[in-house]
Structures
1.
Amino acid sequence: MNKIELLAPAGDLEKLKWAIMYGADAVYLGGKKFSLRANATNFTIDEIKEGVKFAHEHNAKVYVTVNILFHEEDMTGLLEYLKELEDAKVDAIIVSDLFIIDLVKENNINLEIHISTQECTLNSEAVKFYKSEGVKRVVLARESSKKDIKNIMDETNMDIEVFVHGAMCTCYSGRCMLSNYMTNRDSNRGGCAQVCRWVFDLYDEYKTKISDVAEFAISPKDLSLLKYIPDLIDIGVTSLKIEGRMKSIYYIATLVSVYRRVIDKYLEDKENYKYNKKDEIELYRCANRETLPQYFDKFPGVNEQYYIGREENTNQDFLGVVLDYDEENKEIIIEQRNYFSKGDVINIFGPKKEPFNIVVSYIKNGDNELVDAARHPKEILRIPCYKKVSKNDLLRVNFLG
Ligand code: SF4
């Protein structure tokens, strides 16, 4: 069976464990220095070691981003840090500034190198160059089309990683100065202020404000290639990457479990595989922005952008985390995350588990008293469940019918 890697974001140690539990083959994370996503919690070297140990025990890999563009002031401590990553037995580093390739070679540091999407690689000649330098894998720019990905695979026979889900930039990957210009926060050193999603006033060519446009933004909708997983597998890409190191555990668990299911179903029986719209609904409900294939199937146009502000919805779908299952009383013990009440139909999902529904015929609080609703965040409650569930399964609003 053709093995393809599902690669998930890990914003902290807890998210790393959840991503792997829910089916990721590998995770990527950033250390406290030299990594983009400065607002993610990011890992100390001891946390990286613990994450690598957990991942390797579960046959998963850990890649560490060292993908800022380095200014002179950023260089202090880099060599020592790379040696610490080697010592921590990380499976690869993801780099953007190319001098790191030489630095690793010259110092005989045993680290596999992946080229970050920040390098904006869009053609096979660039990939051949990286290959000749000893690079193991290239993460293509999110602006790659299916045709280009296939050509690059055919021309280079290189390990290729493709983004399948997450946020897009208005500018090409790694080529944006908006944040630097508007906020003095450097998007290529982890400081992006997401300026492209701000609301702007719009002026005509005579510098007159167009007053009938209430809000104007230049924010791209998010990327999802769920529908195209079979195409990517058949093209032969090595790794499918989910973006979002700052996302919640619920988001990561949902995305990883849906992509895992789709990949496995296609690999199990390619001929009879059918795209299931319900998988897409699951993804849509846990995200707060519309998703599209973006550059994969055509050049994006007006429909791939938000032009009237952020248009994001928060949702209250995440209802609770399973702490334990009481087999004798056929009850789940949960930690509540959002309101639900007696009589609701809720959905339960977990690692490598088909989601299923239950009716909440009663709710008991921590004193074993019956209550009509789960009102308090983090409250420990009991609800009936005919099927055995496992610790760390998740409860959500039933939106699957
Ligand atoms: S400002 Fe927008 S386009 Fe620029 S790096 Fe940030 S998210 Fe990307």
Note: The chain is about 25% helix and 25% strand.
2.
Amino acid sequence: MRTVYGPVPSWRLGRSLGVDPICQNACSFDCIYCQIGPTIKKTYKRDVFVDTKRIKRDLKEIMPIDADIVTFSSCGEPTLAKNLDEILEVVRDIVDLPVAILTNSSTLPISKVRRILRNFDKVIAKVDAPNDKIFNEINRPIKGIHLGNIISGIKKFRKIYDGELEIQTMFVEKNKQYSKELAELIKSLDPDLVYINTPLRPSLVEPLSEKEIKRITKDFEDLKFRSVYEYRYRGDVSPLDKEALRRRPAQ
Ligand code: SF4
């Protein structure tokens, strides 16, 4: 499995060069809508999944690249990589682009992770539920992970972070009636931007309709937001990009 892929077109990030520090389906969640399918390795243990030298080699091989941003993303949870800080250093040395990371937010309660994420230009953190009941039903986290801890981790992070903190929230049947509560909760995190999403990529869960998402966006009017139906990428996608898109998680 390649550690570097794309650039792929992203409705959130433009042309994004992906860096995968996990390269396996290892995640602390098992989201019902995950486009990878059920989580194979459910773990909350931070570990070295991919050697930093391998990422350095893969990155050097594809240079130069025409992209807008480098995005740490994975078919698992990228912040579980214990060598995340080392990998970020390698990327900074080789590529002169802003660097973002997509996270499911589960490791934000860990101070060391917050310190590492501070060094990214953009952190896109997932919040799909306003309470533990819905959190357990949608994100199906590993035992011991609670929404309250994640929310306080994100709030602590916001205080120390000068970059762009963006929240992505995935709406499906199970949480659509909680959009008001979710909007209030997300507002308390003081994000720079909110992505309102629904699984338009292949998923075991049906996406909400454009009309339903439009109704939901009304609850987010106090916040700066982008909705997937309005901003999804409509340009041409090359076969290489299609392959890369297939590998990308629905984070
Ligand atoms: S959607 Fe993301 S956070 Fe959820 S199970 Fe898949 S990889 Fe993990």
Note: Residues 27, 29-31, 34, 36, 39, 76-77, 104, 249-251 surround iron/sulfur cluster (CB under 6 Å).
3.
Amino acid sequence: MNLKRHFIFANAAAVVIPLVMTAVFALVFLFISSNFKSPWFSFEDYQTLSETQIELLYIKQDILKQSPDVIKSPEFIKELQTRLSAINGEFIVLQGEQVLFNSHNLSKIDVAKSLDAVNSHVGNASVKLGNMTYRIHSVKLSLAEGVSGYVLLLVPIDPSALNDVTRFLILIGIIFTLSFVLTNVFASYRFTRRTLSPLNHLKKAAGEISSGNLDYPIVEEGDLEIQELCRDLELMRLKLKDSIHTQLKFEENRKMLISSISHDLKTPITSIKGYVEGLRDGVANTPEKHDRYLQTIYAQAKLVDQMIEDLLLYAKLDLKQLPFDFERTDIEDYLYEFVLENEPACTQNGIELSFQSSLIQHTQILLDQNRFRRVLMNILDNSKKYIQKNSLGEKGEINISLRDTQSSIIIELMDNGPGISKDDLPYIFDRFYRSDRSRGKIKGSGLGLAIAKQIVEGHNGIIWAVSKNQEGTRILISLSKF
Ligand SMILES: Nc1ncnc2c1ncn2[C@@H]1O[C@H](COP(=O)(O)OP(=O)(O)OP(=O)(O)O)[C@@H](O)[C@H]1O
Ligand SMILES: [Mg+2]
């Protein structure tokens, strides 16, 4: 329930519930009193009082309905006598100040007392006649003679019945007040439970978060608006936690990057330093030796250069600082061209490079052609590199194939090299990861596949490897169709 509805409902309930409870109580009370005798409330008395009042009202109406002069007719007097005696009442009929008729039970003194009571009171007077008390109701009529006529109706009042009614009304008042207080206490309790306690929990959570405890969960509770607030704050907490986690990861990565770079650069630089010292100290004393030293220095310097270039590229890709220049590209033509470009170098190394496509029609995809060439080159270089050093004597073969699914194209680069062990396979796309076998003699920094992965992901694609030791390697790339 939302906060607004909750407020309206609580306020309405605080009024309606006490009213309903009081009404139910009154009905039950009257029912019990009418069926069982109660020492302090007589339903019969109350009933008689109500019936007398109602009959009196009818009599008054009937008098007023008739012509005023009817009060002089004996039939009227007779009927009045009958009706009033049914409720133990008496009457006096006056023309001006002259008494025309009065009921049989009234003596002259009673009439005089009644007239005196009427004259000295404003509104309904009451008079005590014998041991009975009467309330006098006066009906005024204009008679034909131009004088006023009066019918005074004397109705007995029972003080005990009046007391019963008063007691009943007080009881009803108490019940209403009690149920009103109870309903309000209940409404306040519910309000506290549904609104204030969630707010208190939120306050506690905010305190925990601001003091750095980002694992303190915020539970959705309370009314709709408060639940929404909890949800937003929980999202904020998760994002904050995530960003701090990423920050820590970046920090960790940075440290790892520095240590890996220093380690990987150290080897070729130490080697360069050694050969330069050899030259300077005259160790390379023959022109051949001199030449070999210089060539080694050049090769190592090239390696450092390549490593730095790869590193810069990887860092930029990692920080998403390199914009991609996507173009609509016919993937089959693009791969065919790549194979043509690289075939001679492979043949020179004794490796057969082939290409098959199972696409039925020309398929366009969005490609940053230059960067994607880097992906293919890195994979092809790996195949060339690892086939040569580990081949079991059979001819090296690299096959590039292209197929498609309903929504994407799949490029597969397969070689018949030494394969990758299942221990290394999960890590080959991590930066600086090189299998122990590769670390030996094969040059490289372990960035080739990490760069390939960054670029493929920049194309919203997926790259993965399938390989077994001694069973060749398959690198697969899936890209969405345009
Ligand atoms: N075709 C393959 N055959 C066998 N092992 C492979 C092949 N491709 C990759 N690997 C393994 O995966 C590791 C990571 O490859 P990656 O291209 O990232 O690094 P690298 O080739 O060692 O160095 P770089 O590419 O930076 O010169 C390699 O060291 C190698 O162990
Ligand atoms: Mg490589």
Note: The two ends are 47 Å apart (CA to CA).
4.
Amino acid sequence: MTQHVMVLGGGVIGLSCAFELKRRGFAVTVLEMGKCGGQASGAAAGMLAPYSENVEEPDPFFRLCLQSLLLYPEWQLAVKEASGLDFEYSATGSLYVMYHEADMLAMKSRKLWQDEHDAASELLDSAELRKLEPFIAPEAIGALRYPGESHVYAPGYVKALEEACRRTGVSIRDGLERIDITRWRDGVEVQAASTGETYRGDTLVVSNGAWAGLMESVFGMAIPIYPIRGQICAYETPDMPVRHMVFCSQGYVVGKRNGTLVCGASEDIAGFETTVTRRGIARLESWNGKLFPFLGGMRPFHEWAGLRPATQDGFPLLGRLSVSDSVLFAAGHYRNGILLSPATAAVVADLLEERVAPGLPLQAFNPERFSL
Ligand SMILES: Cc1cc2nc3c(=O)[nH]c(=O)nc-3n(C[C@H](O)[C@H](O)[C@H](O)COP(=O)(O)OP(=O)(O)OC[C@H]3O[C@@H](n4cnc5c(N)ncnc54)[C@H](O)[C@@H]3O)c2cc1C
């Protein structure tokens, strides 16, 4: 009999799991309290940057990120084909900019271990950097270039994922406002408070991002997932003066094909508040001008914020609960949920098919690790 999977949350993680599970023959229902893609996923910069984002060591999180980057070329084509929608996927590569000679040592040690994991990175001096990014600040003394990093236009990607789900037969129930989980051992039963409807299935995938931390009393375990607000802004730059994703220690700038330059992002604690503050955006503006002086005289035309699902140890909660065969977690992807969406979907589908993806240290992501 076909297994029926209920996916809680219609962000990039829930939709990716739903799409992959449907492709593998499961019956799938997505339950979304608001609008699919309406939270962190639609707010993201869309960078697929495992090397720039993981600078310390090749830990299990880095390995999951890298695996996901490798899945992206085929995955994004599958989403485009199934949805009939195009979205930007740009293999621009990235530059991590340095301002001080002292940064060089850290870059060299980062390069050493990352090149063992196919980064193929390149240390650029000031002249080489200027050739690639002519408008970079004169204070920049060089950069580490990662040719394999890429980015998507996140709102377009998430919209296409939702459409791919709908077209392939995933049932999407959105606008449900509040959802009560009334059974989760030996089958799943969920009630939507707003409509009074009850949904039943065999398995529940908990993929409700920053809100997963509110479910400790439901599952009787520690779920240390917290919302970390990211404030972010965009400039109108129709001439597309920035060619790569450009990082520095204080933020990043990424040029989109639609002629906007997305610059982010703050990391502050504001509960579930998604407003932007003048202070938060002013800090971004100041750093943007230090990276690209032409931005110093401009004001962003768009400012927004989203809630990253952060976890206590920085790793997502990804895997089955030992106390119930009916529940899997896929939450807490913090700064890298867009990047991690295909790998997360593959892991969830593999687990439900009783397969284990080779080479992935899944024990590190055990969702019950904070209660052991
Ligand atoms: C400013 C910013 C920039 C970012 N840039 C990048 C980037 O460049 N690259 C990258 O990889 N990542 C980036 N991220 C991180 C990325 O956006 C997140 O890791 C990712 O979106 C998390 O996806 P999610 O599906 O877990 O969460 P969300 O997108 O937040 O989705 C969770 C969904 O669950 C729903 N929900 C909540 N509770 C319930 C419930 N009880 N029942 C039903 N539904 C519920 C919510 O309404 C929401 O739609 C960025 C994030 C921010 C904020």
Note: The chain has a mean pLDDT of 96.
